[in-house]
Amino acid sequence: MGCCSWSACFHLGFLKIQTKAPLFLTMIIVLTYFVYCLTGYCETMPSSLPVSPQRRSPAAQQPELREKPGRYPSAEPEPELPGFPLHPTGQDQAAAAGAEGSNISVFNNFGSKKFPQAVIIGVKKGGTRALLEFLRIHPDVRAVGAEPHFFDRNYERGLDWYRNLMPRTLEGQITMEKTPSYFVTKEAPKRIFSMSKDTKLIVVVRNPVTRAISDYTQTLSKNPDVPSFQMLTFKNMSTGLIDTSWSAIRIGIYAKHLENWLQYFPLSKILFVSGERLVSDPAGEMGRVQDFLGLKRVITDKHFYFNETKGFPCLKKPEGSSRPRCLGKSKGRTHPKIDMEVVLRLREFYRPFNLKFYQMTGHDFGWE
After folding, report:
1. Could you give the CA distance from residue 306 to residue 112 in angstroms, rounded to a whole number?
2. CA proximity to 257, closest of 74, 115, 124
3. Which one of 247, 253, 309, 310 has the fewest CB atoms closer than 10 angstroms to its CB?
4. How far is 142 from 166, CA to CA, in rounded Å?
5. Mean pLDDT to the nearest integer, 304-316
6. What is the pTM of this model?
7. pLDDT digits (tens, 9 = 90+) for 43-72
8. Cβ neighbours of residue 254 under 8 Å, at least 6 residues apart?
9. pLDDT class for 76, splitting at 50, 70, 90?
């Protein structure tokens, strides 16, 4: 081939470079992207691509493990508490709510699910719901709202299932749950001990006569056709023999149930909270609870006011809320009128059990 002129060769070379320039530029961009990915920067880069099910985290693909009130069939629904966050650490919940729209599970990045370090094990109609809601004010307490009933009804589901019900906690926070029926479940002490012998247990107790009437009141509200309190109390009305097979009576024999727990846990691991003092002096009782859990005394008098209508303390409205926080309509029901002779007979029945309970716990609850 003949030699081209200098200007023609230059022009030809320029055209070849111009043709290959986009390819070179593309290669530079791709190489730069890989360098950024290797150094971890691409993880923080925003993306407008939708997240496919295959790319989602395991937790995002398993909605049944998220905290939703009433998600377990055997649990009581979480009470409506308007104007107050259900959990004291609200930042992560707000973040999670925002993340729902972007298909990102924020809970996966903050804290971890752990077995509860403390469990409110009883007693029914003693004040366990109030205690739990008061505790949730504390920034270092994270608790399941509904009752898991794991150690009495759902134990066959396994410990992994139970742990997945727990809220995520950060370092220094305590995981808690409450199921009042544990206290009267024979298998519960051994099962909790098998999970962790260091578990702290809280029992809220109340005058067993008043507790039984409150228990009956709850039953009556759900089934108006139940027999009278008097008929259910006595196995034989003419002899005055108390029917201890009725759960409302049996639960109040605290000394008998406590014996079962002391086979596995020492008294140092059990705190007994007075249901009466939780009403008359909530800050005082909460001080004892916080000390027992090893928490700073954050919950004080400033958090409570007495609701005359309901007859028990409510939480003052938090900052940013329009109204105070009281327990739901199911709490503070008016008790039916019970014949005084029945009440006196029940007091007589419970007296020896109460005295034994005082002796076992080292506390005189003043029910005489």
Report:
1. 37
2. 124
3. 309
4. 9
5. 79
6. 0.69
7. 333 333 333 333 333 333 333 333 333 323
8. 123, 205, 208, 353, 354, 357
9. very low
- pLDDT at residue number 237: 83
Ramachandran angles phi, psi of 99, nearest 5°: -75, -20
CB hemisphere CA count around 219 (13 angstroms)? 16
More confident residue, 213 or 59: 213
